[in-house]
Design brief:
Number of strands: 2
Distance between the termini: 100 Å
Radius of gyration: 26 Å
Strand content: under 5%
Helix content: 55-70%
Number of helices: 22
Largest sheet: 2 strands, antiparallel
Length: 390
């Protein structure tokens, strides 16, 4: 009797194992396959590892992979102001004019040598708060200005900070590094006349807002290498600072009063190239990483470049950087994110017409919520108030 029971148990165990094996190896039902595809699509539509052009570079912005081949929407007719703008590159100038312009920008003082170290891929990848503090403390004047900025009401610290290492602890590495970068650049751009001071003050105000916005967007969007975005945004203002240094002081008020398209025309008419092309040219003379220089140029060209003519994997990153520039100069537009009308607003303005389509990339689906967050709005609100009273 016991042998028979054992035999029955063995047969049942074998049948159970066979049933489990068949169930696991059977093809998924349509509903199961659809659910799996949806979860895979969600996981793939994310910010990937940094692009690698000439070996790993932690300062390179990330590429973005869509779940499928993203097709940009059909473009409506260009606004007349934008359609009539002819963007000029350095290669479009004759050799004589290009050499004259190079000679002029080489007259702009070079920033401290530590700028190159601050932007080097090795430093970005490995530096900690102590190494950043050591680098900046080697420039006492810059260190004092950075500490002054950190202790300003803008950052609302509970008690004064006496050391850059402490600043990193409270504000984060990217914020402090961005402030350091701005003050290192400031050593190269100082108005020669008091009449030019207003233009420089406005550009630095835009730069400060845009760079802090880049830090907060990078954090809110959970971007890898978040310092790359703020670095690219800060360097994007170098062209405007160069224009303010080279243009006749009496023309600066007219230049500052114009929108970006109007400024571009004026820059090309008076200097030969726009700020968007002068910036990369100057950064090249400072021997900064070529990929970083190219990124600055690509961001500036969002003004005149349809998203369909941009590498799909690059469009979201360039759109984010360009948005920071726009909101740095027009922080009052930032409150529109709270009610979801920002993209519609951008699409109605010739100077942000193309930018609006870049922000439609599926990889930026979370952007409206991040823009409307308290973290970002608390950055834009004071800037909008300052801009209204400036």
């Amino acid at each position: 009797m016991s042998a028979f029971v054992v035999w029955i148990a063995a047969v049942l165990a074998f049948a159970l194992i066979w049933w489990i094996f068949r169930r696991r190896s059977a093809p998924a039902r349509p509903a199961q396959r659809a659910a799996h595809a949806g979860s895979l699509a969600t996981s793939v539509a994310s910010i990937d590892a940094p692009m690698q052009r000439r070996g790993p570079d932690p300062e390179r912005p990330p590429s973005v992979t869509a779940t499928a081949a993203w097709q940009p929407p059909a473009m409506p007719d260009l606004p007349a102001e934008l359609a009539e703008l002819s963007w000029r590159r350095a290669s479009d100038l004759d050799a004589t004019r290009r050499d004259q312009l190079l000679q002029a920008i080489r007259g702009i003082p070079r920033p401290p040598r530590s700028l190159q170290q601050l932007l080097s891929p090795e430093f970005v990848a490995k530096a900690d708060s102590g190494q950043l503090a050591e680098l900046v403390m080697a420039e006492p004047l810059i260190a004092a200005k950075v500490l002054g900025a950190v202790n300003s009401p803008r950052y609302g610290l509970d008690k004064p900070i006496a050391h850059l290492g402490q600043a990193v602890t409270f504000l984060g590495m990217n914020t402090v590094r961005s402030i350091c970068l701005q003050y290192m650049l400031a050593e190269a751009f100082k108005p020669g006349l008091a009449s030019a001071q207003q233009a420089f003050d406005a550009i630095w105000r835009w730069c400060s807002t845009a760079s802090e916005l880049a830090v907060r967007l990078g954090k809110g969007m959970n971007l890898p290498n978040q310092g790359a975005l703020s670095t690219q945004v800060v360097l994007g203002f170098v062209g405007q600072l160069a224009v303010a240094s080279l243009m006749e002081p009496k023309a600066l008020a007219t230049w500052m009063a114009a929108d970006r398209i109007g400024r571009t025309r004026m820059e090309q008419d008076t200097l030969g190239l726009s700020a968007g092309e002068l910036g990369p040219m100057l950064l090249s003379t400072w021997a900064l990483p070529s990929d970083l220089v190219n990124d600055v140029g690509e961001t500036a060209r969002v003004l005149v470049t349809p998203v369909g003519q941009t590498d799909t994997t690059r469009a979201p990153w360039l759109g984010l950087a360009s948005l920071c520039h726009h909101l740095g100069e027009h922080p009052q537009d930032g409150h529109l994110a709270e009610v979801g009308h920002l993209v519609e607003r951008l699409a109605t303005q010739p100077q942000s017409f193309h930018l609006a389509t870049y922000l439609g990339h599926p990889a930026l689906a979370r952007l409206p919520a991040v823009l409307a967050s308290g973290e970002v709005q608390s950055c834009l609100a004071p800037a909008a108030a300052d801009d209204a009273t400036a």
